[in-house]
Amino acid sequence: MRHIYLVTHPEAQHHVDGLVGGWHDSVLTARGHRQAERIADVLASRIGQAGDRPDGVDPAGDHRDRVDPVFEPVEVYSSDLRRASQAAERIARRFSVEVHTDTRLRERSNGEADGRPQAWLAERRIPLPEYGDRLGHHDGPAGTETRLALVERLYPALDDILRRPATTQIIVSHGSASSYLIAAWIGMPMRSTDRVFFPLTSGSITTLRRNDTHHSHQVVTLNETDHLRE
Predict the structure, then answer these.
(1) What residue spans define the domains of the chain?
(2) Which of the 8 DSSP states describes residue 124?
(3) Average pLDDT, stretch 119-137?
(4) pTM of the prediction?
(5) Residue 56 confidence (pLDDT) above 50
(6) How far apart are the first and last CA of the chain?
(7) pLDDT at 95 over 90
(8) Strand duo 205-211 + 216-224: pairing
(9) Which of 67, 145, 154, 213 lies 20 to 30 angstroms, CA to CA, from 121?
């Protein structure tokens, strides 16, 4: 079976400051870094270890003071924006692997609104219509990315990840982007995503699994947040 652990980056500075995120390259807050550590704890507890051994015995049978856990092969992918990549780096360290960054895993750009106060965007935003070309809708601020442009880069990004041989993969992205990654995982056609939205909390974990018997793409857990409690 293949398991995908989809992580939305935890608390970032733009959340605290009330700024528009998008491609604004904010960093994790101190709280966000703590949340990233707890995310790493959860994932380490769920991802099986290769050749589990009692402490003090290495593969050759020699006694040692401590044996570090040896995990099944894990790959970690991340948006290149710092709030995501910082979280991904903390997770990757737990598994002693590198982070593969991909600009296609970024959040949707809000153009000139990125990094500005949320109120600035609210005053200028053109509401998304209930009907019509919702994917091609332009929200107003110059340089804003349409939802169609977002799905057109996220779907191929996930396809490339799934072509990799590793059966355990962790993807660290953003709220809206992760919602469309779930849509891509379950095989929803791009043009059918004009109404889809999975509300995901910052720092949440969603577990995706491919069943090798039925070749089904499952959403096993959605938006887990218990680990965020302080």
Answers:
(1) 2-47+67-228
(2) H
(3) 97
(4) 0.90
(5) no
(6) 33
(7) yes
(8) antiparallel
(9) 154
